[in-house]
Amino acid sequence: MATSSSKPMRVLHLEAGRHLYGGAQQVFYILQALQHSDIEYYLACPPGSDIAQSASAVAQVLEVPMNGDIDVGLVFRLARLIKQHQIDLLHVQSRRGADLFGLLAAKKAGIRAIVSRRVDNTEPGWFARWKYHGYQQVITISEGIRQVLLSEGVQPEHVKTIRSAVDTDKFQPDETASARLKKEFELPQNSLNIGVIAQLIERKGHHTLLHALPEILQQLPQVNVIFFGKGPEQAKLREMVNQFGLTSKVHFAGFRTDMPSLLPGLDLVVHPAFKEGLGVSLLQASACGVPVIAGRAGGIPEAVRDDVNGYLMTPGEIPELTALILKVMADHELRSKLGQQGRQLMLDEFSIQVMAEGNEAVYRQLLSLKD
């Protein structure tokens, strides 16, 4: 695509998420890391969203109404923004209708577009091939997600993996965090604390841990579990907690904005998910020096490595999860070793700069092409 010599190249990020976590957090990391680039970065996002406020210092924010999968009008609103601000390349960062309507808007405006794929759920092969081959490049946040797209018939050369990153300055070990966590949730001083940091939805596997917990407590009665997050499964999970007699042992913390100060106080993070693109909360746990036990699903094996920063388990296998939790929670030296190794793994392989530069390399390659 030929770009005008009178202006710098301009890339517009499209993010439909309203809260600054998950994919939206990764978009902010990219914009923050590349704010001094010779490429100008713009962000289209919903009015009043958290990312709109945070990103205003590092990019030009364009607030635009986004109303999900049936909001066909988004095509025309985005096309107008693209033409008004002379955008050269669109990077669609989320779904909620944006992955389809963003593609159509780019085509209507006559510019190239790329898309980031952050989830490992499947789509009909014909639809995946049509949609993703409409983009000039697909970026997946894990090799696991890339393999899903390849299995649906998307061509290998069309899909590139650039893994999500973790802010290792924001998430780091903190010796004072354990006392803070225990005070916040009124836990005994000798408690051993497991955290689950995920939406309360079925595929995250909270119920697997609840089934394992009674046997764990027989051997380690000082264990407590904290569920961080909200979701439609909350009522069902609370019912299970009551049914199993675990009301004094399982705490529902809801969505918290102070995770960097609480997470390092955990002894273990458990994520028995059945599906997961990569698992940013697992990266954050490792950055804080907290070991992880997680389901062997999607991109999780790229974030959690056996006997390095934790252990992988077969999703849904209660005895396996029970044995691994007992192994880690009963051995302070093992937890310390896994925590230290996890911190180093995050520093080596999951830095924000590496992730941001990987994305910018894709932009430069596409922007250098001629029509």
UniProtKB/TrEMBL annotation:
SUPFAM superfamilies, A to Z: UDP-Glycosyltransferase/glycogen phosphorylase
Keyword Membrane attached: no
Residue ranges annotated for the Glycosyl transferase family domain, each copy included: 181-344
Pfam families listed in its UniProt record: Glyco_transf_4, Glycos_transf_1
Keywords: Glycosyltransferase, Transferase
Domain Glycosyltransferase subfamily 4-like N-terminal intervals: 22-170
Coiled-coil ranges per UniProt: none
Domain of life, source organism: Bacteria
The protein's name: Glycosyltransferase
